Amino acid sequence: MSVTVGRPRGGQQAVTAIHHIDDTVDELIERERALSALDAALRRSSEGRVRMVLVEGAIGTGKTALVWRFLEQAESSGVLCFGVHIRPDERSLSVDTLDRMFRNVAVPHLFRTAVARRLSALRDGCGADGPTLVSQLTELAADLLDLAESVPVLLVIDDIHHLDTDSLHALLHLLPTASAGRVLVVLTADESRQPLDWRMPTGLLMRPNFQRVVLNRLSEDGARLAATRRLGEAAAEALPADLVALSAGNPLVLEYLSRAYEATGTGYPQGYAQAFVECLRRCPPETVEVVRALAALGEQATPELVAELAAVDRVDVDLLPLTNAGLLDGQSFRHPSAARAVLRDMPAGVCAGLHRRAALLLHDEGAPALDVAHQLIQADEHELPWASELLLDAAGEALALNRVGLALECVKLAGRAERDPVARAVVDARLSRLEWHLKPLAAARHVQSQLKDGAAGRLSARDTLDLAWRTAWFGRIDAVEPLLSAVGRTPDGGDVNELVRWLAFTYPKHTFSRGPVTAPPSSAQAEPWLHSASSLAQGLIGAPNDQGVADAERVLQSLALDHESLWSGETAALALLTLVYGDRLEEAVAHADRLLDEARDAEMPTWHAVFRAVRAEALFRQGDLPGAYDEAVTALAEIPVQGWGIVVGLPVGCAVNAAVRMGDLSAAKRLLGSPLPKSALRSRYGLHFLHARGHYRLAVGLPQAALADFLACGSLTEGWGAGGVGVVPWRTSAAEAWSRHGNPDQARRLLRDQLAMLPPSSGRARGQAMRVLACVSRDTRRPQLLTDAVDVLKNCGDKYELARALTDLSVALRQGGDQLKARRTARRALHFAKAAGARPLCDEAALYDQEAKAARLARDEDEKLSLLTGQEIRVAALAVEGDTNHEIAAKLYITPSTVEQHLTRIFRKLNVKRRDELPWQLDTWSA
User: Fold this and answer.
1) Across the chain, what does the average pLDDT equal?
2) What is the pTM of this model?
3) Is 699 helix (H, G, I), strand (E, B) or coil?
4) Mean pLDDT of the region 256-282
5) What's the rounded Cα separation, in Å, for the pair 720 and 540?
């Protein structure tokens, strides 16, 4: 008889009638029914008839758990039990296997002596094969029958599928053949590379006392029911559908998945990887080798390549154990975590050797360089003669796919393969360039060695220009000058003046020379984006103008970030800043958003952080203080502060400015403590930091210290002449500090200079200057100046600066006596201050609004009181003090009836109904 438990699969044949269980609800119960079948076989054998049961099924369907559970139950009921598990590496039935079967079992001395004699004969004879093995196994079978006369015997041999065909045939002689005897033999086998029927002796399969129990995988509903019983009803309702599908009905895999899901809620793929490795350990060595080759080759795996790498004939045959278990989908992993787990489970040296062989195989097959490089990286192999060139080619392929991290790994390994100093310098330059895109701080550590390569003439013009850029980024001004000379001596160096122009904008107070030029400049530039970068920098040195903005727009529309050029990102950042400094803030934000997407897709986190910092500055100038603060702080978190180099002044300055205007002075103070390179304060990025620190000092009541910061900005840009007005409005801020310091004359001089330098398009800076000028002007001029400032700021889109101007205007109007207009203006100021997120300005505008409201109420009351006659005012005043009608009549020498008539007219004129509603001002009026 044969019993199949679980969902039957096509092609499975039984020797006798097979009982299939299709009822989903009963699938799990049938696993208990299989155990009951073993119990029934044990009872029949105990009655004196030898029985044999073969439990079959795929890996993980529970055969081993079933039979060893059965053995424990039988042992507890007084059955003498022997059991052994055949390991995957045991291909033949060895003496050690037999020794493990009969060892540590309490048996009569006579039987133990007989077993020891049989095993000794096998050791001394021809080992575990040949006629000696057959004869000794036959005698052992007879010994078991003799033993069974006194006690029922259970013999369990687990995983017999690992044995080769000869051993399976030899095993037949160990199994008692006599029909009379209290012996039960239980065997287990996986569905292996070859069906067991093909290898088992026909005589065993046809015995009338032979029974097969087949455990199949669960159906989808059965698997969900099993997970429900494992996790409980509540958790099962939220069970992801892909968890059940991933298990493919394999009970072992389902148990691992459920356990991982129960522990993490989302990490069940990790459980799948653990289950896969556990099942793989139960497979034959050929299957293990094929699966490892499959994992190592990844997407490049084909049956032919896998077979060659694993040194097998038929991949599909060797994968049958895992395919039948539902762990593979054909010849593919059902989840990528399984492939990673297979490789991690290998010894490091073995795994490296596998990847090296895969690299050689793919290289010989003419596979793409990136596929071969992946294997070389995993193997840490760089000694092959063709490795360096291939790795550099692979880096280019990786960059075309925006996989900068992989390109970086390729170049690193190629660098280790190079022995020639010149070639090594070229590779190192490329490595540093790629490292900067991902980890600028790591790239900084290579600057010194590359400066030596530059001095030795090992770098090309383009590599030297990139090195100059990175050297300037990290504030090494002293090292830039020799690089200028190096570029000037290079035939393809292009125009060194381009680099000098860019440096003059980056470090305003430093004077750079071209250095000696010993070769004529080439007509073609080594760095294609250098000209655009220097032109934009030159435009920023001057006052913002429409031509510069148009040039920036053209650059941004045509520019694409280039992994092999740092100048492409620098050009994009300069173009964005041109729009920001030129008050084209909406356009700047739109272009920044596009560049942020491009930098993210291109795996350029450093440029992503820089573009986010510029976007934060644009939001700040639009008056979106919370947005600017969040963007700047997020940018600072994207790369380490030390990795920002001198550029850190831009995001820190923006965040501090926003925090001060939002009223969060503690956050501003914390940000000002950020570590800044000393050279940062000598760069244009230092302008943003100094300007922001000055406004923080103004906010905490230190106008003299603030003035020092603002004047330091002016000193830094003095080489620019009239330029720099768009970077930070330092003159306007210094004028505000002079005003707070009690020197309005100096403030007015600075403001006149600022307004004279500003082009007509600089609406934001002009509006700021006019607002501060109003503060230091005569009272009669102040309303008009502020009105003009409001008109200018309305068009530039800065909500915060507009709110400030409106607040000051409301005060000026109130002081000038126009209370109604002052109150309306204060309300407008409050609206824009709230939109900007400026809490202190909100409080200030609200205060002015409340004062105006109180003044209006007082004026309204005065107008009402003017309607009363003198006698009515005296009567009302005494009523406010709480006097009765008789007391008022006595004090004013009139009758109570007259008092009553006066109060009636007073209530009507003042529009009140009771004495307690009379205005308190009556007391003053009566006086």
Assistant:
1) 83
2) 0.73
3) helix
4) 84
5) 10
